[in-house]
Amino acid sequence: MVAVMGEGTGWTRRAALGLIPALGLAGCAGRSDDAGTAPLSMWAMSWEGDYSPFLMPRFTARTGIDVDVQSLPTTASHEKLLTAFAGGAMPDVLMLFNTWVKEFATIGALAPVTAAPLVADVFPALRASTRVGGHDYAVPWSVAPQVQFYRRDILAEAGYDAPPQDWAGWRTMARAIKRRRPDDYVFLMLLNWPTALVTMLSQAGAAMLRDHDTRGDFQTPEAREAFAYYVSLYTDGYAPMVLSTEMQDPVAAFATGYCSVWPSSPPTLKDFARRADLIPADKWSTARLPGPNGYGAVSGLSASLCVSTQTRRPREAWALVRHLTSVESELDYQRLIGNLPARTDAWGAPQLALPVLRPFAKQTRALSVTPNVIEWERIQIEIQSAAERVIRGVQTLDAALTALDERVDRLLAKRRALLNRGVIA
Amino acid sequence: MTRQERAGWLFAAPVLAIIALVFVLPTALALCLSVTDYSIYALADWSNLRFVGLGNFTDLLSTPLFWRALANTLIFAALGVPMAIGTSLFVALLLNDATVRWKPLWRVLLFAPYVTSIVATAVVWRFLFNQRFGLINRALGAIGVAPVDWLGNPHLSIPAILIFVTWKVFGYNMIVFTAALAAVPQDLMEAARLDGASRWARFRHVTLPAIGPTLLLATVMSVAGFLQIFAEPYVMTMGGPAQSTTTLLYFMFDEGFKWWNLGQASAVAFVLFVMTLAVTVVQTRLGRRREWL
Lengths: 425, 293
Known about the structure:
The structure holds two protein chains of two kinds.
Chain A: H1 2-9, H2 13-28, E1 40-45, H3 46-51, H4 56-63, E2 67-72, H5 74-86, E3 93-97, H6 98-106, H7 124-128, E4 131-132, E5 135-136, E6 139-140, E7 142-143, E8 147-151, H8 152-157, H9 167-180, H10 195-203, E9 208-210, E10 215-217, H11 221-235, H12 250-255, E11 261-264, H13 267-274, E12 284-288, E13 303-307, H14 314-324, H15 327-337, E14 340-341, H16 358-363, H17 376-391, H18 397-411, H19 413-420
Parallel strand pairs in A: 1-2, 1-3
Antiparallel strand pairs in A: 3-13, 4-5, 6-13, 7-14, 8-11, 8-12, 9-10
Helix pairs in contact in A: 10-11, 11-17, 17-18
Chain B: H1 3-33, H2 40-44, H3 55-61, H4 64-96, H5 103-115, H6 118-129, H7 135-142, H8 157-182, H9 186-194, H10 199-227, H11 231-236, H12 248-258, H13 262-289
Helix pairs in contact in B: 3-13, 4-8, 4-10, 4-12, 5-8, 8-10, 9-10, 10-13, 12-13
């Protein structure tokens, strides 16, 4: 085949070989000067990544700018974004989970927000997580207060119209459900998802970090109470000891009644809407999460939009952020994927008055503030694996909490050193 | 330098240049990184970078997860190499039997797992291992065994992954062994049979010496492979449950690429490099003593 082609077109093998370095050089030449016509690039995770293209036609119609959205798998997004920054391949606009903003701002990946009105009316607890050194580095896109989704029919069988407001009551309800359904569980809390435990820690009043967030603080009575309560839900058989790799379909687990109470956040609204044939809307409802002594503040952190420092078109990139975080777009997003608006101004809209959204609305008035250190994402994983070791009987609670403090101290060693030298504030 | 030598160097030069560029240079750079505290703070500002000497290595020695990962890796290698090589050899011997029909078909079917995508097969095996719905537990249930929590029990997660890995990789060495077995001298085999050697004695004294070098090569490659096991735990269990399947390479990946502690990760890489080198040297020594190399 090759020989025939060579004869027919007058190609020689040497000429063909000579072409290889030429192609290599052409590949190295990089992006040509197409900045004026190429679409803006944007990366987002989760439902936001899949559904962002639906918000783009209006933007393109108004500004004439095309946007190319790439959806990143959530579990691999952190390393992908860091590698992109180190390699100079960041998109123009990117979505970040709020707990990552400080990290990316510190390494110089994010352009500061210069237009103050962009962040003027977002929930203060969200805005706090995007501020570094007195500047805003991201525009919060949504608020995601943790609530519980519960099966109305299963709770009714056990004699409950709605879940109780405190931990003791929650456990009593679980016992009543478990008695009627011994082969099923009650709480859907996967063993490698830290949010439920971190929420309990903050509700119990555990600071988690001390000494200007340079050391772990998990051997306090508050932290111990939250850990012990969380662990007991598993050891008493109210929550299944499974990882996300084992429970591949949590929605089905909830729909079949394998678990009847699911502490989760607004994206679950979309999961349920999408599979309404499996889990009809009259079978479930939402309620605020219980605290040790009744309702309290929980984290509402969700996702924000940022502009990369590597963008060559900052004006267009900010225009896109302004469009996506406008009240109009945020309300559109609420209809599309359930995300709740980060702007307080949007909350007067009638579409947010639905009964299932009421617990979210009430919870947005009590949002807790999360420790704002670069290492927080990692610390959360350590918190969760400490709990997992206790639940699986590998370590005692005391040993796990001591080890957790040591581990967190070590993770924060560099921060401590930089703080002592006065390099960071 | 003679003309011939010059020509030899000239022809080898492109390959040597590539090896230097993509292997020697990165290895040397990684070694340099391993004596610094390169972390996300250094990515933010180069002035945060410090020379720490052997600090990363002493740090590693006092990190429980490092020891855990090291132990897990050694368990993977100690159990996995005999499992994988044994299965390959056993199946190759079966296929080598004169009475087996449709040999090419069997060879293709048994080799297929090796060339299928690891992520796709891992998803299927995760279903097979599922405690509630998995086929494996169904089958065990039929013979009266209670459901086993394959991927959720910290003591069973490594064996479960090894079953998957063995299924995935045995095809490659099976083909290698099939080729080696074809070269076993038939006259020797017949002479041994005439002398009344049993099936085991024929395997031990005729087949094994003939395929010895191949066996050694396969073992060296498998040990190196199992010491670097990463993708299987990554897609099956994400290092869990309770970090029971976190291997050295997984630990290095987390430190380096997820959290950008490249100093620490390079130190792990260096430890792994030394380990692989040491094991390979020992194996070649053994092989040389038995005149296999």
